[in-house]
Amino acid sequence: MIRIGQQQLEVPGLIRTKTYRRLIEKLLREKQDHDFDGHRKYISRLSKRLKGHYRNKCGYCETKVNSAGYLTVDHYRPKKKVAEDRTHPGYYWLGYEWTNFLPACHGCNSAKSNHFPIDSQKGGIRVPGPPMTADRQLDFNACRVDSKIHQEEQPFLLHPIVDTPQEHLTFLPDGTVKGSTSRGNITVQVCGLCRSDLVTDRKDFIDRIFKALGLPFRQFINNEITKDVLYYELDKIFTKIRQAQEPHRPYSRLGWFLFEHFPTFFSRRFGGKTQHQLRKAYNRFRKHGTCGKPGDE
Question: Measured between alpha carbons, how far is residue 138 from residues 5, 94, 162, 179 in Å?
């Protein structure tokens, strides 16, 4: 999951039209009986540009969409019912709220389904019905995912517009991800972020980096390459890790974590002198953009 700041998102023009307003009036009359499937074109139009902001990746697991898959639209707050509260009518009034949409792969959408847990121990109280203005119109500002009324619910699930994922998620060498906070843990569990396919993909990338790091050090220790060549090879590897955190890359949050936590994540897998040299090389790369900066020995 990557941060999608509110400032990056352009408000869809559709929500300013009379057609959209009439659709919302119809929705508020019909409530839970509203036929969302019959009006799917509105959801499609509202979500089309949103997928571009998410770089055509799943908003939860960051799977990159290719010819083998597609992105669905997940309603962050479920529009029909809430798994954790059967007495709640579901957030039907948010069925066309564009900030309530997340592009999601089939795996994450199926796992999350209609779950939306809140932290009642922190005083979270579920919004019982549509927020209305003084003239009895739907309050569109209060419907936004970052509105005060929604934040006061104390949602457990992370949202890319509202939250900073790196504060809540930790990646492990075996390809799994765990929460460093209760919100991170519940997001991992509810969205199935440790599904076998995701774990395998993340572990494959981690293992390739580890293998790539080990080879030039073995060659250097065996006097097969010079220190200049060692630094050249390390520069390429560090650059690859740094590039892996670019927002358009699949699993870019993993890439960020590997680069920012490199000294503890990778160097501990090497012993003694190699570990020390690797840490020094990484620190030089972060400072100068290259491992072989003269005078830094």
Answer: 24, 10, 22, 36
